[in-house]
Amino acid sequence: MSLLKLKAVPDPDSNPNDNAKKTQTIDLGNGSEVVYVPRFVAYDDGWEFFNYLDKHIPWTRPTLRVFGRSCLQPRDTCYVATAGLPDLIYSGYQPHAYSWDDFPPLKDILDAVHKMLPGTRFNSLLLNRYKGSNDYAGWHADDEKLYGSTPEIASVSFGCEREFFLKKKSRKSSQERSDEGPPSKRLKKSNNVDQHCFRLKHGSLLVMRGYTQRDWLHSVPKRAKAETTRINLTFRHVL
């Protein structure tokens, strides 16, 4: 198979103001921020990456320990990281860390993310595959200590569009982690300042910055109409 090359990132030399118009920046307050780029990867290139990832990534669906009981994670996953980093462990599960060299197209996407986000130095990647309407991510924050107090997390999506929710932590939720607790079917509309929803399009990029992991929870809930597969890449920097 020929090596995929990412020629899909917005080109700063053409249409210099185009990217700024499409990029949405949401100030969540208290040093938290979300940036959303709907067209980070071009449509056709995105499907090339989707097909590569779907077929070549060694996906697994691990068993987690949540609130003292075992449960199957409701999505497939894989972990890639630079050699020598501390191990990632979440909900009692320690994934095997594959090398970037094992999947060269991932390095192309990583390079594109770095160009889009100057100053970032991502060195690990958690991949997730949602195979249909019953696959989801419960309310949680990516607040593991190995990411530091203000982690920047860049999320690239391919395939089926899914809703991505953010809600402000309550005092109780700030003290606990609920990785695979079932997300609520719909967020209440009583206070839209404390909750946000993004429809993550094929080829989009969403970035969480600052104290977002400290002060906010996020989820990808079940959706009956989400009948096809979504693949999501979350780039992180391990200290």
Automatic annotation (TrEMBL):
Ranges of Basic and acidic residues composition bias in the record: 173-183
A GO BP entry: DNA repair
> What is any Pfam family matched here?
2OG-FeII_Oxy_2
Where are the membrane-spanning stretches?
A: none
Q: Which PROSITE patterns match?
A: FE2OG_OXY
What InterPro entries does this protein map onto?
AlkB-like, AlkB-like_sf, ALKBH2, Oxoglu/Fe-dep_dioxygenase_dom
Q: Where is this region: Disordered?
A: 169-192
Fe2OG dioxygenase domain segment(s)? 121-239
Binding-site residues for 2-oxoglutarate, renumbered to this chain: N128, Y130, H140, H218, R230, T234, R236
Top-level taxon of the source organism: Eukaryota
Sites where the protein binds substrate: F67, G68, R69, D143
Q: Which family does it belong to?
A: Belongs to the alkB family.
Q: What is this protein called?
A: Oxidoreductase, 2OG-Fe(II) oxygenase family protein isoform 2
Q: Which organism is it from?
A: Theobroma cacao
